[in-house]
Amino acid sequence: MITRIxxxxxxxxxxxAASIVSRDQLVLSTIETKHRPLVIWHGLGDxxxxxxxxxxxxxxxxxxxxxxVHSVQVPEGGTPDEEKKAGFYGNATEQGESGCEQxxxxxxxxxxxxxxxxxxxxxxxxxYAQYCNDPPIKNLITFGTxxxxxxxxxxxxTPPSLTCLLAARAARAGIYSTWAQSHLVQAAYFRDPARFxxxxxxxxxxxxLNGEGRLVDGSGQVGQGGQGLSHLENFIPVMFDxxxxxxxxxxxxxxxxxxxxxxxxxxxxxxxxxxxxxxxxKSLDEAGKLHLEHCPxxxxxxxxxxxxxNLVKKWVGDM
Length: 319
Ligand SMILES: *[C@@H]1O[C@H](CO)[C@@H](O)[C@H](O)[C@H]1NC(C)=O
Prior knowledge:
About 40% of the residues lie in helices and about 10% in strands. The chain is of the alpha/beta class. It folds into 2 domains: about 1-35; about 35-315, Rossmann fold, CATH 3.40.50. The chain binds 2-acetamido-2-deoxy-beta-D-glucopyranose. InterPro entries: AB_hydrolase_fold, Palm_thioest.
């Protein structure tokens, strides 16, 4: 509510100012009030321009008239079926790279943009921020993103799609097999603390993204997490408080299950990832740029309490 009032008065002030200055300044102020572009990366089982995502984009365009919004499509130019399939099947590193290429080729984004990742899509945006980031992300918001992995597969929806059932069966057959690691997207962020050695030796995507590759051989040369995240203006990982889809739900805030006891959770501030600042989370936090936010609902319930739109008002669309 406060955000909305502040925003309204701010808009009012700038339009009033524009009306009483000279024509040159008016042109300048029109340029200055252009909203920063936004990139969205959808989640598992969704497509770039599904009904849900399109509605969300429409709401954002109503809030910020003229804002440029791009929703990442993998594979680019693919059919909705191919897109849904790519959410389950594929090499996560290659999908991350294809996002890097896609965003680098959009002129509207060339001065930087805010980015919003839904669930699994947040990991790909983190890949972008840490390994590519050209043009740069300013504010990064992730909703229900399993930043520190999942210790159990994401359950298939009811009724389940065949793609989801088949992917789940393949995953159960050996999540840490070489095949699964390079062909199943969920395997790329499957991190079961009870099988941490297997994770360290076979996983590359999440392990390297979180800087845990340095634990592999002690040389500190493997998997440093790229340039990390400390370059962001703000990082806003959002956790769904009633999330029963991601295990553990707190992975959205970089929590994990304890290595020895799955009934215990290790909070972000107790993770080496944070205390040793492997990917810049501690730096961001100390600079007041890490904002661990909450939404009240189940996984990807963006509407309850107007949660997502309130975060959009606060973190998206700056000049
Ligand atoms: C995925 O693709 C990358 C880039 O082509 C490759 O280096 C890697 O070995 C593949 N597999 C995994 C598990 O990342």
